[in-house]
Amino acid sequence: MARGRFISNTLGGSKKFSRLRNDTHRLAYVMLVTHADVAGRVDAYPPLLRGYAYTLMPWTDDQIQAALEDMHRVGLITLYTVDNEQYAEILDFDKHNKVRADREKPSDIPCPPESSSISRENAGSTPQQVEVEVQVQVQDKVQVQETTTSSNNDDLETLVEAWNTNRGRLPAAAKLTSGRAARLRTLVRDLGGTDQAYAAITIAAQEVSRDDFWIKKQYGFDNLLANQKVIQKAETAYNRGSFDHDQAEIDRMLAAIGGNDA
Protein backbone atom coordinates (compact mmCIF):
# COMPACT_ATOMS: atom_id res chain seq x y z
CA MET A 1 0.00 0.00 0.00
CA ALA A 2 1.15 3.56 -0.62
CA ARG A 3 2.34 5.61 2.34
CA GLY A 4 -0.94 7.53 2.32
CA ARG A 5 -4.02 8.42 0.31
CA PHE A 6 -5.50 11.72 -0.78
CA ILE A 7 -8.46 13.35 0.93
CA SER A 8 -10.24 15.64 -1.51
CA ASN A 9 -10.52 19.33 -0.59
CA THR A 10 -14.21 19.05 -1.53
CA LEU A 11 -14.88 16.78 1.46
CA GLY A 12 -16.10 19.69 3.59
CA GLY A 13 -18.86 20.30 1.06
CA SER A 14 -19.90 16.67 0.79
CA LYS A 15 -23.52 16.05 1.76
CA LYS A 16 -22.73 12.44 2.64
CA PHE A 17 -19.86 13.50 4.89
CA SER A 18 -22.03 16.14 6.58
CA ARG A 19 -24.73 13.54 7.30
CA LEU A 20 -22.44 11.50 9.53
CA ARG A 21 -23.81 11.62 13.06
CA ASN A 22 -20.86 13.33 14.74
CA ASP A 23 -17.32 14.62 14.32
CA THR A 24 -15.85 11.40 15.71
CA HIS A 25 -17.35 9.48 12.79
CA ARG A 26 -16.04 12.13 10.38
CA LEU A 27 -12.52 11.82 11.77
CA ALA A 28 -12.78 8.03 11.67
CA TYR A 29 -13.70 8.21 7.97
CA VAL A 30 -10.76 10.45 7.09
CA MET A 31 -8.33 8.15 8.91
CA LEU A 32 -9.90 5.07 7.31
CA VAL A 33 -9.37 6.41 3.78
CA THR A 34 -5.63 6.86 4.38
CA HIS A 35 -5.28 3.11 4.99
CA ALA A 36 -7.16 1.89 1.91
CA ASP A 37 -5.37 -0.51 -0.42
CA VAL A 38 -5.05 -0.17 -4.19
CA ALA A 39 -8.73 -1.04 -4.64
CA GLY A 40 -9.93 1.28 -1.88
CA ARG A 41 -10.61 -1.56 0.56
CA VAL A 42 -9.66 -2.14 4.20
CA ASP A 43 -9.97 -4.91 6.74
CA ALA A 44 -12.76 -3.46 8.88
CA TYR A 45 -12.66 -5.72 11.96
CA PRO A 46 -12.76 -3.11 14.79
CA PRO A 47 -9.98 -4.59 16.98
CA LEU A 48 -7.66 -4.61 13.95
CA LEU A 49 -8.60 -1.06 13.01
CA ARG A 50 -7.72 0.03 16.54
CA GLY A 51 -4.28 -1.46 15.98
CA TYR A 52 -3.37 -0.04 12.59
CA ALA A 53 -5.65 2.92 11.81
CA TYR A 54 -6.87 4.31 15.13
CA THR A 55 -3.85 3.37 17.21
CA LEU A 56 -3.93 6.15 19.81
CA MET A 57 -7.58 7.09 19.56
CA PRO A 58 -9.59 6.41 22.75
CA TRP A 59 -12.31 4.53 20.88
CA THR A 60 -13.82 1.19 21.84
CA ASP A 61 -14.61 -1.56 19.36
CA ASP A 62 -18.31 -0.71 19.66
CA GLN A 63 -17.63 2.94 18.85
CA ILE A 64 -15.57 1.98 15.81
CA GLN A 65 -18.29 -0.40 14.62
CA ALA A 66 -20.90 2.34 15.06
CA ALA A 67 -18.75 4.73 13.00
CA LEU A 68 -18.38 2.15 10.21
CA GLU A 69 -22.11 1.51 10.13
CA ASP A 70 -22.74 5.25 10.00
CA MET A 71 -20.34 5.62 7.04
CA HIS A 72 -22.18 2.79 5.30
CA ARG A 73 -25.56 4.40 6.08
CA VAL A 74 -24.70 7.68 4.38
CA GLY A 75 -23.02 6.03 1.39
CA LEU A 76 -19.34 6.81 2.03
CA ILE A 77 -18.33 3.14 2.27
CA THR A 78 -19.72 -0.28 1.57
CA LEU A 79 -19.49 -2.42 4.72
CA TYR A 80 -19.67 -6.14 3.95
CA THR A 81 -18.63 -9.59 5.10
CA VAL A 82 -16.96 -12.44 3.24
CA ASP A 83 -16.41 -15.78 5.02
CA ASN A 84 -17.55 -14.12 8.27
CA GLU A 85 -14.85 -11.44 8.03
CA GLN A 86 -15.83 -7.76 7.88
CA TYR A 87 -14.38 -5.45 5.23
CA ALA A 88 -15.07 -1.95 3.91
CA GLU A 89 -14.73 -0.47 0.45
CA ILE A 90 -14.36 3.30 0.05
CA LEU A 91 -16.92 4.50 -2.49
CA ASP A 92 -15.64 6.82 -5.26
CA PHE A 93 -12.11 6.02 -4.10
CA ASP A 94 -10.67 6.15 -7.64
CA LYS A 95 -12.12 9.63 -8.24
CA HIS A 96 -9.84 11.13 -5.61
CA ASN A 97 -6.85 8.77 -5.75
CA LYS A 98 -4.91 8.19 -8.95
CA VAL A 99 -3.48 4.82 -8.03
CA ARG A 100 -0.50 3.39 -9.92
CA ALA A 101 -1.52 -0.25 -9.99
CA ASP A 102 1.83 -1.21 -11.49
CA ARG A 103 3.60 0.11 -8.39
CA GLU A 104 1.38 -1.48 -5.77
CA LYS A 105 0.49 -5.08 -5.09
CA PRO A 106 -3.06 -6.13 -6.01
CA SER A 107 -5.69 -6.01 -3.30
CA ASP A 108 -5.85 -9.19 -1.23
CA ILE A 109 -9.21 -8.16 0.25
CA PRO A 110 -12.26 -9.68 -1.49
CA CYS A 111 -14.64 -7.34 -3.25
CA PRO A 112 -18.22 -6.83 -2.01
CA PRO A 113 -20.26 -9.88 -3.07
CA GLU A 114 -23.19 -7.86 -4.47
CA SER A 115 -21.11 -5.70 -6.79
CA SER A 116 -19.11 -8.60 -8.19
CA SER A 117 -22.15 -10.80 -8.85
CA ILE A 118 -24.13 -8.00 -10.51
CA SER A 119 -21.25 -7.01 -12.79
CA ARG A 120 -20.72 -10.58 -13.98
CA GLU A 121 -24.36 -11.50 -14.45
CA ASN A 122 -25.30 -8.29 -16.32
CA ALA A 123 -22.36 -7.99 -18.67
CA GLY A 124 -23.65 -6.79 -22.04
CA SER A 125 -27.10 -5.79 -20.77
CA THR A 126 -28.66 -2.39 -21.35
CA PRO A 127 -28.85 0.03 -18.38
CA GLN A 128 -32.61 -0.54 -18.18
CA GLN A 129 -32.15 -4.32 -18.09
CA VAL A 130 -29.50 -4.00 -15.44
CA GLU A 131 -31.74 -1.81 -13.29
CA VAL A 132 -34.62 -4.29 -13.50
CA GLU A 133 -32.31 -7.23 -12.77
CA VAL A 134 -30.77 -5.48 -9.78
CA GLN A 135 -34.21 -4.70 -8.38
CA VAL A 136 -35.20 -8.36 -8.71
CA GLN A 137 -31.98 -9.49 -7.03
CA VAL A 138 -32.50 -7.07 -4.17
CA GLN A 139 -36.13 -8.16 -3.67
CA ASP A 140 -35.15 -11.85 -3.70
CA LYS A 141 -32.31 -11.20 -1.28
CA VAL A 142 -34.56 -9.27 1.12
CA GLN A 143 -37.14 -12.08 1.11
CA VAL A 144 -34.48 -14.68 1.91
CA GLN A 145 -32.90 -12.50 4.59
CA GLU A 146 -36.24 -11.83 6.26
CA THR A 147 -36.82 -15.57 6.73
CA THR A 148 -33.27 -16.56 7.72
CA THR A 149 -31.63 -13.56 9.39
CA SER A 150 -34.19 -13.36 12.19
CA SER A 151 -33.64 -16.94 13.36
CA ASN A 152 -29.86 -16.67 12.93
CA ASN A 153 -29.76 -13.45 14.92
CA ASP A 154 -31.92 -15.00 17.63
CA ASP A 155 -29.28 -17.73 18.04
CA LEU A 156 -26.49 -15.15 18.17
CA GLU A 157 -28.41 -12.99 20.65
CA THR A 158 -28.55 -16.06 22.90
CA LEU A 159 -24.74 -16.20 22.79
CA VAL A 160 -24.53 -12.51 23.73
CA GLU A 161 -26.87 -13.24 26.63
CA ALA A 162 -24.53 -16.03 27.76
CA TRP A 163 -21.87 -13.35 28.22
CA ASN A 164 -24.16 -10.85 29.91
CA THR A 165 -25.48 -13.44 32.37
CA ASN A 166 -22.02 -14.61 33.45
CA ARG A 167 -19.80 -11.53 33.07
CA GLY A 168 -19.85 -10.48 36.74
CA ARG A 169 -18.44 -6.94 37.04
CA LEU A 170 -17.19 -6.81 33.44
CA PRO A 171 -18.95 -4.57 30.86
CA ALA A 172 -22.20 -5.77 29.36
CA ALA A 173 -22.58 -6.30 25.62
CA ALA A 174 -25.35 -3.85 24.77
CA LYS A 175 -26.24 -5.19 21.34
CA LEU A 176 -25.35 -7.61 18.58
CA THR A 177 -23.14 -5.55 16.26
CA SER A 178 -22.18 -6.86 12.83
CA GLY A 179 -18.59 -7.35 14.03
CA ARG A 180 -19.72 -9.46 16.97
CA ALA A 181 -22.10 -11.41 14.75
CA ALA A 182 -19.27 -12.29 12.37
CA ARG A 183 -17.04 -13.51 15.22
CA LEU A 184 -19.86 -15.48 16.80
CA ARG A 185 -20.67 -17.21 13.51
CA THR A 186 -17.02 -18.22 13.24
CA LEU A 187 -17.10 -19.56 16.80
CA VAL A 188 -20.28 -21.55 16.14
CA ARG A 189 -18.71 -23.01 13.02
CA ASP A 190 -15.43 -23.88 14.77
CA LEU A 191 -17.15 -25.50 17.75
CA GLY A 192 -19.76 -27.37 15.72
CA GLY A 193 -22.98 -25.71 16.84
CA THR A 194 -24.75 -23.04 18.86
CA ASP A 195 -25.10 -25.26 21.96
CA GLN A 196 -21.36 -25.85 22.10
CA ALA A 197 -20.64 -22.16 21.59
CA TYR A 198 -23.14 -21.23 24.32
CA ALA A 199 -21.53 -23.62 26.80
CA ALA A 200 -18.00 -22.44 25.96
CA ILE A 201 -18.95 -18.74 26.26
CA THR A 202 -20.75 -19.37 29.56
CA ILE A 203 -17.77 -21.10 31.12
CA ALA A 204 -15.21 -18.72 29.62
CA ALA A 205 -17.22 -15.69 30.82
CA GLN A 206 -17.32 -17.05 34.36
CA GLU A 207 -13.58 -17.67 34.20
CA VAL A 208 -12.68 -14.11 33.16
CA SER A 209 -15.26 -12.59 35.52
CA ARG A 210 -12.99 -13.74 38.38
CA ASP A 211 -9.79 -12.52 36.71
CA ASP A 212 -8.44 -9.42 38.51
CA PHE A 213 -6.59 -8.28 35.38
CA TRP A 214 -9.75 -8.40 33.26
CA ILE A 215 -11.68 -6.57 35.96
CA LYS A 216 -9.03 -3.87 36.27
CA LYS A 217 -8.87 -3.35 32.50
CA GLN A 218 -12.67 -3.69 32.19
CA TYR A 219 -12.31 -6.01 29.24
CA GLY A 220 -15.59 -6.97 27.59
CA PHE A 221 -17.21 -9.46 25.26
CA ASP A 222 -15.19 -8.37 22.22
CA ASN A 223 -11.96 -9.12 24.07
CA LEU A 224 -13.22 -12.62 24.79
CA LEU A 225 -14.17 -13.18 21.14
CA ALA A 226 -10.74 -12.16 19.85
CA ASN A 227 -8.02 -14.71 19.02
CA GLN A 228 -9.97 -17.78 20.20
CA LYS A 229 -9.92 -16.61 23.82
CA VAL A 230 -13.34 -18.26 24.35
CA ILE A 231 -11.83 -21.68 23.79
CA GLN A 232 -8.65 -20.87 25.72
CA LYS A 233 -10.52 -19.60 28.79
CA ALA A 234 -12.99 -22.50 28.70
CA GLU A 235 -10.07 -24.94 28.61
CA THR A 236 -8.46 -23.15 31.56
CA ALA A 237 -11.69 -23.39 33.56
CA TYR A 238 -12.07 -27.07 32.71
CA ASN A 239 -8.49 -27.93 33.66
CA ARG A 240 -8.88 -26.16 37.01
CA GLY A 241 -12.41 -27.40 37.58
CA SER A 242 -13.44 -23.82 38.29
CA PHE A 243 -16.96 -23.86 36.94
CA ASP A 244 -20.39 -24.78 38.23
CA HIS A 245 -22.78 -26.22 35.66
CA ASP A 246 -25.16 -29.09 35.21
CA GLN A 247 -23.87 -32.23 33.49
CA ALA A 248 -25.51 -31.41 30.16
CA GLU A 249 -23.64 -28.09 29.93
CA ILE A 250 -20.39 -29.74 30.96
CA ASP A 251 -20.82 -32.35 28.22
CA ARG A 252 -21.46 -29.63 25.63
CA MET A 253 -18.42 -27.70 26.77
CA LEU A 254 -16.21 -30.80 26.70
CA ALA A 255 -17.35 -31.57 23.17
CA ALA A 256 -16.70 -27.96 22.17
CA ILE A 257 -13.10 -27.83 23.39
CA GLY A 258 -12.24 -31.44 22.64
CA GLY A 259 -12.04 -32.53 26.26
CA ASN A 260 -14.34 -35.51 25.86
CA ASP A 261 -13.06 -38.44 23.81
CA ALA A 262 -16.26 -40.44 24.16
Features:
262 residues, mainly alpha, Arc Repressor Mutant, subunit A, 2 domains, 3-stranded antiparallel β-sheet, 58% helix
Task: Provide a concise account of the structure shown.
The protein has 262 residues and is mostly helical.
Report on the structure:
The chain has 262 residues and is mainly alpha-helical. The chain has two domains: 11-121, Orthogonal Bundle (Arc Repressor Mutant, subunit A), CATH 1.10.10; 127-257, no CATH class. It has 13 helices and three strands; from the N terminus they run ααβααββααααααααα. It has helices at residues 15-18, 23-33, 46-52, 61-74, 93-96, 113-121, 127-166, 178-191, 194-209, 212-217, 221-225, 229-240, 247-257, and strands at 41-43, 77-82, 85-90. A three-stranded antiparallel beta sheet has the order 1-3-2. Helix 9 (194-209) crosses helix 13 (247-257). The longest helix is centred in the middle third of the chain and has 40 residues, at 127-166. 30% of the residues are buried. Residues 115-134 and 140-151 have low confidence and may be disordered.
